[in-house]
Write a structure and sequence with these properties.
The structure is a single chain. This protein is α/β, with parallel strands linked by helices and 399 residues long. It has 2 domains: 146 residues, ATPase, nucleotide binding domain (Nucleotidyltransferase, domain 5); 187 residues, 2-Layer Sandwich (Nucleotidyltransferase, domain 5), CATH 3.30.420.40. Helix content is 37%, strand content 19%. The strands form 2 sheets. An 8-stranded mixed β-sheet has the order 5-4-3-2-1-6-8-7, sandwiched between helices. Helix 7 packs across helix 8. The longest helix has 25 residues. The radius of gyration is 21 Å and the shape is globular. Bound molecules: adenosine-5'-diphosphate. Adenosine-5'-diphosphate (ADP) binds next to helix 10 and helix 12.
Length: 399
């Protein structure tokens, strides 16, 4: 069975066509600048040159048309006909409280996705546009929605409730939802597999550290707390997001800068985090380079980021009542030995000892703790697309 995985952003679209018979990626691609000048599609197929199409794409339907054309292209494609695509799996950011697992998309599901727009105004609309565009172009192909929030629906009430008037939860759905669920679930299961243990017997802390970052406490295979909240702004300091701050800062800034609440929200989401502290970049590679050249604010940004991750690891060790395994994943977690070392430094009291030689690794599943460490430490490449494809296949096969 071949599954097309689609991850639609506001002006970009990532896709992968996966052959589930042997779990191999047939093609992967990225469409950028949808609806703006300079639209471009880049498709990669193992062992071949990149296939690039530059032509105007006025909307996501145009983009998906082009993706399908690229996949069936006589020279650069990987399938003969669109009918070879058995199902489409869509990444959807917010499923609210309705979805604790992936779901076959029908009219009822589409209605609830619309209802979730209020909760994720930046993310859900492009996801919905992508699904509608695919439905128009492939009306008889089954489609599945895989939610970033679903894995965290197992959190207990005391973890997901905010200490606000209770009615705000019942009337407006204000609670912690958590994100990156597909990634946390995937790397936790890979870690259990690598340890040769049943995930039901393990306490795992997963650190998804990329542009957006979150830490999750996983007990017996289910999420019991996570650092992102009502929106992906809560928790760690990130590329451009502030993470946790004193909420009183918002009204202070509104008055002091004489700006609207929306402008402050924009500052917290787009101008803060390691970008705001360093003044250099939101990309950790640039910040690491600047710090190495002696830029003190760049070093502070790295120190602050690592400190916050370490705090969550400590907090979640308490939440879990002990930890068997810590996992690092995503762009930074997979590729920055320095970050992993700084976070693990001082965690020896938990029984977690990093082996600095084994830690000198990028982008491949590796156990990086010392032989006498009580806690297993791993770096594991995340693969949200494969997870989405697996869920999609399972749901479509049982429909
Ligand atoms: P997202 O999916 O949230 O956009 P990624 O998981 O792709 O982000 O992570 C992107 C981040 O990973 C970049 O900001 C970059 O700083 C970091 N990163 C990628 N490779 C490296 C590397 N070799 N060293 C340090 N940081 C890296």
């Amino acid at each position: 069975m071949k599954v097309l995985v689609i991850n639609c952003g506001s002006s970009s679209l990532k896709y992968q066509l996966i052959n589930m018979d042997n779990e191999s990626v047939l093609a992967k691609g990225l469409v950028e600048r949808i609806g703006i000048e300079g639209s471009i599609l880049t498709q990669k197929v193992e062992g071949r040159d990149k296939y690039i199409i530059q032509q105007p794409m006025k909307d996501h339907k145009d983009a998906i048309k082009l993706v399908l054309n690229a996949l069936v292209d006589k020279v650069n494609g990987v399938i003969n006909d669109m009918s070879e695509i058995s199902a489409v799996g869509h990444r959807v950011v917010h499923g609210g409280e309705k979805y604790a697992s992936s779901v076959l998309i029908d009219d009822v599901v589409m209605k609830s996705l619309e209802e979730c727009v209020k909760l994720a105004p930046l993310h859900n609309p492009p996801n919905i546009i992508g699904i509608n565009a695919c439905k128009e172009l492939m009306p008889s192909t089954p489609m599945v929605a895989v939610f970033d929030t679903a894995f965290h629906q197992t959190m207990p009430e005391e973890a997901y409730m905010y200490a606000l008037p209770y009615d705000y939860y019942t009337d407006y759905g204000i609670r912690k939802y958590g994100f990156h669920g597909t990634s946390h679930k995937y790397v936790a299961s890979k870690a259990a597999e690598a340890m040769g243990k049943d995930i039901k017997d393990l306490n795992i802390i997963t650190c998804h550290l990329g542009n957006g970052s979150s830490v999750t406490a996983i007990k017996g295979g289910v999420s019991i707390d996570t650092s992102m909240g009502f929106t992906p702004l809560e928790g760690l300091a990130m590329g451009t997001r502030s993470g946790n701050i004193d909420p009183a800062i918002v009204s202070f800034l509104v008055k002091e800068l004489n700006v609207s609440v929306e402008e402050v929200s924009d500052i917290l989401n787009k101008k803060s985090g390691v970008l705001g502290i360093s003044g250099v970049s939101s990309d950790f590679r640039d910040i690491e380079d600047a710090a190495a050249e002696g830029n003190k604010r760049a070093q502070l940004a790295l120190d602050l980021f690592n400190y916050k991750v370490k705090q969550y690891v400590g907090a979640y060790a308490a939440t879990l009542g002990g930890v068997d395994c810590i996992v690092f994943t995503a762009g930074l977690g997979e590729n920055s030995p320095e970050t992993r070392e700084a976070i693990c430094h001082g965690l020896e009291f938990l029984g977690a000892k990093l082996d600095t030689a084994k830690n000198k690794v990028r982008g491949k599943l590796t156990q990086i703790n010392t032989d006498d460490s009580k806690v297993c430490i791993f770096t594991i490449p995340t693969d949200e697309e494969m997870m989405i494809a697996k869920d999609t296949m399972e749901i479509v096969s049982h429909k």
